[in-house]
Design a protein that fits this description.
Pfam families: M20_dimer (PF07687), Peptidase_M20 (PF01546)
Organism: Hymenobacter terrestris
Helix content: 40-55%
Protein name: Amidohydrolase
Strand content: 15-25%
Number of helices: 14
Keywords: Hydrolase, Signal
Number of domains: 2
Distance between the termini: 86 Å
Structural class: alpha/beta
CATH superfamily of the largest domain: Zn peptidases
CATH architecture of the largest domain: 3-Layer(aba) Sandwich
InterPro entries: Amidohydrolase (IPR017439), Aminobenzoyl-glu_utiliz_pB (IPR017145), Bact_exopeptidase_dim_dom (IPR036264), Peptidase_M20 (IPR002933), Peptidase_M20/M20A_hydrolases (IPR052030), Peptidase_M20_dimer (IPR011650)
CATH class of the largest domain: Alpha Beta
Shape: globular
């Protein structure tokens, strides 16, 4: 009997020295929600500072540095200037598997400077504004990274968290270069989100996109005294635009083609010797994008031939469509429903009604921001370089109501909302949802395995190749 008694004491001692078991995911999630809410004021201030910087693609020096500093101060190892982009970074904490990535964006849009009021009121001396809410995007993603880092540091989770600082999403295709550089190799899953006017899991496709600047070169001359000696580069641009507009009748109906003349000459009495037009071509299928883009190039060549000018073009952006990972999407939907939507104060409700009046179109009730939409495949319409990430690693995202319901992206109304607390409240919905989903990924290896299997099935025999080819990042595309 004594032998058994001594063994019992020894066994109890061994048990005392065992590392504590990982707390249940539900306990970790409760802690994470409390921690994130406790730091709400800090994250709100961070988002508002980036809103004030309002830096366009590849020029986001202050925004990127602020996010890097925030992560570095909490123990992340930050590698800056990755993939040939000065404002791109990868911040890492932890070691071993799983490796979970979180995407952060922070670029603004040109021509959208706007104060945080419900009437169109530009900011004097400023051009750009956060009309897509990327000040909120980057901050929520960093908040997610910091909360997971805290749980790793406390020994409640095991693995690695990576926060990807992704510049120039708005047309610069920053993530494509990061994928091409192999920065997502070894990553098990990636989380992302996007500001919007509703709370929903992203189970619709971003569409593929190719963009380029077409530059025509002519011969300058006095437009009145010697017009015969001139060859107008602007004629080349206008001829190209006319042919592309005729092309619209003969492309798949889902195709979208947009352009803006970025340089049309300097004075009417000088025949322009240089002109430039900036084009986007989009379609849900990347092969159709490439086929239509090739026809746009032919139109440009024909325009140059017909106007006696020469033409060259620079491929600026190119992104894949988004592969939906339903395994991860269902998990995220559950967490989004747990977090819930955004509830406005009486003052915010009044602001929302003013914003909706300014839209000049019917809008859903302002209170709809408190709702979470059911899991459903929806048309998304836009393009994003997140699509390229989704072809190499299981990827899942959500949209959160950072803008008053009915507010379109890329509008002055979206800029105003992104700088106010209505935006910050939606930002926290995203941070909390991504954090809860990350906890699932750290604690449920079967979820990660199933997501990887789904990705392999959807990619099939396709070998990923960036639509940008081997060109260097277009760091001056906003110039």
């Amino acid at each position: 009997m004594k032998k058994y008694y001594l063994f019992g004491l020894l066994g109890a001692g061994l048990l005392a020295f065992r590392p504590a078991a990982t707390p249940p995911a539900s306990v970790l999630k409760t802690q994470a929600l409390q921690d994130l809410q406790a730091r709400y004021a800090d994250y709100q201030q961070l988002a508002q500072r980036i809103w004030g910087f309002a830096e366009v693609g590849y020029k986001e020096a202050q925004s990127s540095a602020l996010l890097q500093q925030t992560l570095r101060e909490q123990g992340f190892v930050v590698e800056a200037g990755v993939a040939g982009m000065p404002t791109a970074f990868v911040a890492t904490y932890g070691s071993g598997q799983p490796v979970i990535g979180v995407l952060a964006e922070f670029d603004a849009l040109p021509g959208l400077a706007q104060q945080t009021v419900a009437t169109k009121t530009p900011i004097a001396g400023q051009d750009a504004g956060h009309g897509c809410g990327h000040n909120l995007f980057g901050t929520a993603s960093v908040a997610t990274g910091l909360e997971i880092q805290k749980l790793l540091k406390e020994g409640k989770l095991r693995g690695t968290i990576k926060v990807y600082g992704c510049p120039a999403e708005e047309g610069g295709s920053g993530k494509v270069y990061m994928v091409r550089a192999g920065l997502f190799k070894g990553v098990d899953a990636v989380l992302h989100w996007h500001p919007g006017s509703q709370n929903a899991t992203m189970v619709g496709k971003y569409i593929a996109n190719s963009s380029a600047k077409f530059r025509f070169h002519g011969v300058a001359a006095h437009a009145a005294a010697a017009p015969e000696r001139g060859r107008s580069a602007l004629d080349g641009v206008e001829a190209m635009d006319q042919m592309v507009n005729m092309l619209r009748e003969h492309v798949p109906q889902e195709t979208r083609i947009h352009y803006v003349i970025t340089n049309g000459g300097k004075a009417p009495n000088v025949v322009p010797d240089f002109a430039e037009v900036y084009y986007y071509v989009r379609h849900p299928d990347r092969a159709d994008v490439q086929a239509t883009f090739a026809r746009v190039v032919k139109a440009a060549e024909g325009a140059a031939l017909g106007t006696g000018t020469t033409m060259d073009y620079e491929l600026v952006g190119g992104t894949h469509d988004l592969l939906i990972n339903e395994t991860l999407a269902h998990a995220l939907q559950t967490n989004l429903e747990q977090v819930g939507g955004v509830r406005y104060s009486p003052e915010e409700l009044a602001f929302g009604q003013q914003i909706q009046t300014s839209l000049g179109a019917p809008a859903p009730p302002v209170e709809q921001a408190a709702q979470v939409l059911p899991y459903q495949v929806r048309e998304m319409g836009g393009s994003s370089d997140v699509g390229d990430v989704s072809y190499v690693v299981p990827t899942v995202g959500l949209t959160a109501a950072t803008w008053i319901p009915g507010t379109p992206a890329h509008s002055w109304q979206a800029v105003a909302c992104s700088g106010k607390e209505v935006g910050s409240k939606g930002m926290m919905v995203a941070a909390k949802t991504m954090t809860l989903t990350a906890i699932d990924l750290f604690t449920m290896p079967q979820l990660v395995a199933k997501a990887k299997q789904e990705l392999q099935q959807k990619v099939g025999n396709y070998v990923y190749k960036p639509l940008l080819g081997d060109r260097a990042p277009a760091l001056n595309y906003r110039d």
